[in-house]
Amino acid sequence: MRHAEQHARSRTQERRRRLAVEAARLMSESGIRDFHQAKLKAAERLGIHDDKALPRNSEVQDALREYQRIFLGDSQPQLLRERREAAEQAMDFFARFDPRLVGAVLEGTADTHSSVCLHLFTDEPESVPLFLAEQRIPFEQRSRYLRLDRERSIEAPVYTFAAAGTPIDITVLPRQALRQAPLDRVDERPMQRATLAALRELILLDQLADYESSRAPL
Fold first, then answer.
1. Within this chain, do residues 87 and 195 fall inside the same structural domain, yes or no?
2. Which domain holds residue 132?
3. Residues near 43 by Cβ (< 8 Å), separated by ≥ 6?
4. Structural domain ending residue among the three candidates 19, 43, 71
5. What is the value of pTM for the model shown?
6. Where do runs of H (alpha helix) occur along 72-195?
7. In a 3-state reduction of DSSP, which class is residue 174?
8. Are 93 and 8 in the same domain?
9. Structural contact between residues 125 and 157, judged by C-beta atoms closer than 8 angstroms
10. Pairing relation of β-strands 116-121 and 166-173?
11. Which of 1, 37, 112, 144 measures 20 to 30 Å from 30, CA to CA?
């Protein structure tokens, strides 16, 4: 009986691993941003119909990092640097709204499908689209739900546009949200956020890594 249980657990773990790898591939190649959607599509493609085998978001995130390291090792780091430089310009542009960088560009998993995602903070949310209009920036508007904590959620306005070919995704939050980041969809902990100063430190580290790599003996 114990052997059968161990075999069943081992089989479930293997299915979770396969699903995580396939979901990561779909996210990288197809531009799927939703973890749950990627997992369901991976399960459909692999013919795995066992809810217990669905991996956690964090497992898919780890698999995505590994996929990028193996298959995109030459191109992804450069694309990430370009996205971070675009984020620096965008954050400087929106300085009046105390911008914070979030998402794949900050975490290091940005790819060709990734937007520069910013949180802006103001108690006058209408001031953001007015600012965009004043700058003659065409944008699209929608909303998204963010979990502030285990009990509370907020529906926040979102504005998307392109700057020099780079997609920008802006979520507008009340100023009090500067104190506590919303929960991350990956691990349900407060999401990582970076100020403009912190982003510039990351860009500097990227530049130093490039310099060290160029000096390394062949």
1. yes
2. 76-215
3. 19, 49, 53, 54
4. 71
5. 0.83
6. 76-93, 104-107, 127-134
7. coil
8. no
9. yes
10. parallel
11. 144
